[in-house]
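Quick one: C-alpha cells for this chain, please?
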Amino acid sequence: MQPFKILCLLLSIFTWGNTGIGKAESFGIKFLGDSATTVSRSAGVMAINGWTNISTATFISGTILASDGSVSATLTRSGPGAAKSWHSGSAGDGGNGSLLDGYNDCMINGSVTNILSGLTGSAYTVYLYTAGDTARPANNTEWLPNYLVNGTEYCTATLNANGAYLGLIQGGLTSINNNTYPPTLLAGNYIEIDNVVPVAGTITIAANADNRTWRSPLNGIEIVASTKAPLIQLPPTAQRLYTNGVAQFTVAAKSVNPVFYNWRKNGINLTNGGNIYGAQTNVLIVTNLTLADQGDYTVVVTNFFGSVTSLVAHLNVVAPAIADLQIDAFNQAYLVQTNGLTYYTVSLTNRAPDGTWTFDLDIQGAEDAFERTQSPQQQQLVNSLLTTWLIQNPPSWSWDGWNDDIGWFSLALIRGYQMTENANFLAQAEYGFNYAFGRGWDTNYNNGGIWEEQPANVDGAPGKNPLACNSLMQTACMIYQSTGDTNYLNKALQIYSWERTNLFIPNSGLVCGNISTNGIVDTTPNLYNQGTFLDCANLLHNITGQQMYYGDALKAVEFTRNHLTSNGIFNNGSTGLNTWAAEFARGIGHFVKDNNLWSTYYPWMQANANAAWGCRRPDYNVSWSAWTQPTPTTNDLIANWAVNAVAMLQATPASEPGLVNCTNQLPGTVIGTSGSWSNSGNTIAKVFDGNLNTYFDGPDNSGDWVGLDFGTGVSNVVGQINYWPRMGYADRMLGGYFQGANNASFLNATTLFTIATTPPEGGIITPQTITNTTAFRYVRYVGPSNGSCNVAELQFFSPNPLPIPPQITSHWNGSQLTLSWSNGGQLLEATNVTGPWSTNTAAVSPFIITPNAPRKFYRALLQ
C-alpha cells in the first residue's frame, strides 16, 4: 500500500483514494480516542481499514498485520504517555474541534516509545502523522515537537486539527531543538523519514523523548518497505471538463533516476502532437477538448528496476448546459477559497463567510450540482465546503436552540457523506440528528412532534412545524440508507406519522405551517414546507415501497402547482424566505426521477428552470426568487436567494430523460370492454381510429378497459405509450393505468405506468417512455374509478432498434491494403498482436497501406 493512501483516508477521507499500488510491504497504526470515549461512529473515531486501530489506554503489545494481511510484525508500546490519548469526535475536545479521530497525547513527562519488531524488509520509509489540537510551536519561543526514529531525532512544526481536515501537508525536518524556531521549517500534518534501516528487524519510534515541548502528537504511524521500483504517491485524478477546455493530468511518483513516463488513453500509448502535450512526462496536457478526448487515462511509470501503472483517471468531456453555467456563475459570484478554507459568502458585496444554517443551504446547492454531474471536481468542492463548515462550526451546537438549524446542519452533512464517503460527515450527521431529536421531540403537547425552537429559548409561544420535522426526517432516512440502522428509520416513520396526522391535509396536499401548544394549526402554505415534505414522502416510499407515501407526495406536488405559482412559475420577491424555492426544486427533482414521471412534470419543471435562468442579472448571471421579473442589479443579492435558481436548474435536465420518440408503432386487434355508455356508439374501436374527436365512453362508471392483442405467437416489448384524453374530460384519465400480460384475462398483469396528473387537451400528445423490458402479447389501458374509461386515442410502440454497429472493411489488391472504417475512428498500429498499440494520427479512412518491414498489426478504434 502506498503511503499517501492512508494519510488521505485519515485527513481528507476521499480526495485521492487507493491507487492500487500495494506491492511494497506496509504497516499502519492508528491511535483512537481515550478508553473513556466510545470507539464508535457516533464518537467520530475513524478506524482505517487494513491498519491496526488501537485505543492507547488498553494496548501494550501485540501482533500487527501488514495492510494486505500477508505478513505480521509485533508492536510494543511503553513510556508514561503510552496510555494517554486526546478525546475524539463529539466528546469533549477542548472546544476547538480537534481531530475527530483521536491521537496519542505525547506531552512533557509523557513520552511514548513504539517498537516495531519482526520486520523483514531491508529498509523502510517512515510516515508520522502529527496533527495536534493546536499548532506547535505556538510561537517562535517554544520547543519543537520531536520524534526519535532508531535513535535519530527529528523535529518539526505541526499544524493543528484544522490543518488535518484540509489535506496532505508535509512538514519540514530539523535535528535542532534549542528553543529557536527555524525560519525555514515548514509546518505540516505529517513528516516523512526515508531509508530507515531496521536494527535486527526492529524500528523504534519515540515521541517527545527529550521532554522539550508541550505536546508531540501522534495520530498514526505508517512504515512502507523501500523498493527501487517506482512507487506512485499521487495518481492522476478523474475530471469533468467542457468542450474547448484544457485537461491536465499529473502523477507524483517516488523513484530512483532515471524515471520514464508513458501516458495512455483507453490502454493506447499517447504521443505528442495535435492537442497532446507531455505524453512522456509526469504532466499530461490535452488542449481544445472535444468529445473524442473523453476516455480512461493512465500512466506507466518505469525505471531500471520495474514499472507501475496508475489507476484509471476518467476524463468526461461535455458541452456545457445551462445548469452548468448556473452553478459556475453562482460559484464565481459567491465562492471563496483562501488559506485552506472554502466557503460561500453572505452576499455579492459582503464577503464574510455565510452563517451557520444559511451556509448549509448554500452547500446543498453545490450538492445538487454533484448529484446532476457526478463531477470529481464538484465532489471535491462538496468535501471542502463541509470540511470548512465543521471547522467554523464544531459540535456540540448547544449554543443553537433552533432544532431546524440542527436539521439543516445534519442534512447537508449526510448528503455530503453519501457523495464523498467522508466518514466524519456521517459521524456528525448522526450526532446532530440524535442531539436535536433527543431534546426536541416532545409528547407533552400535540402528542409528539419536534419543537422548531426549544421552549426555553422562545419569547412567545413555542410551536412545532415542518421546518424542524422534515429536515431531521430526511436526515434520519438517509442515515438509515447509509448505515442500515433501523433505529433511524423507525424515528423517521415516527416523525412522518405525527406530521401526517397534525400538519398534512391528505385530501388537498397542503402542508400546514405550524401547530402551537394549544392545538391551533396555521394553514398558511409555504413552498419550502411543501418541498421538504415531498422529499420525505419520496424517501419513505423508496425505502418502504408503501403506496401511501407516493400518494402523499403526489398530492403535495399538485397542491403546489395549483396554489403556489404564478401561471405555473414560482415567484416570490420576499427577502425573508431564503431558499424559498430550492427545497421544492430538490424535492420535485428527486420525486420525478425516482418514479419516472418526466412526461408528467418535465414541461412544468423546464418552464421554471427557464424562468429562473431568464430572469438573471446580466452582470453576475445569478437570479433572485421572483422568477417572473428581472433580477434587480441594484440589489445586493445574498447567496441564499441565488441558490434557488441553482437548485431548480440542477434538478431539471436539459432535455426530457427517457423520451425515446419511438417510431415503431405496434399493430394489433382491438380488445376491451364491449359496448358504450347508453349505447351511444362510442366503443373501444374509436380509440385506434386516428381521430382525436372520437373517444371511448365505457358502459360502466368503473372497471372498463381498452387495449390490443398482438396475435397468436406474438409478443412485444413496449417502449413508449402515447395517449390523448377525451376533449373536455381530461380529468377522467387521472389515476388510469396501463398493463401488459401474456394471458387474455390479464391475470397477474404487470402495471407499466399510472397516470399521475391530468393530461393536457387541445390535441396535445402525452408520451410516456416505458422501461420495463418484458415482452407481452396483450396490453391495455384501465380507466380510473368514475371515469368510464374515457380516452380519445392510444398508441403503443416498441423500442427503436439499436443502430447498426460501425463497420471496418479491408481490400487487398495484391500489393496494397486499403482499410475503411466509419464514425471518424482512429487507426492503431503495433509490431505485435498483443501491443502496445499507438495511434497513427495521420491516418484517415480510407487508408492505404503498402507492406514493408517490420511486420505491423492494425486495428481501428471507433468512436
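The first strand starts at residue 26 and ends at 31.
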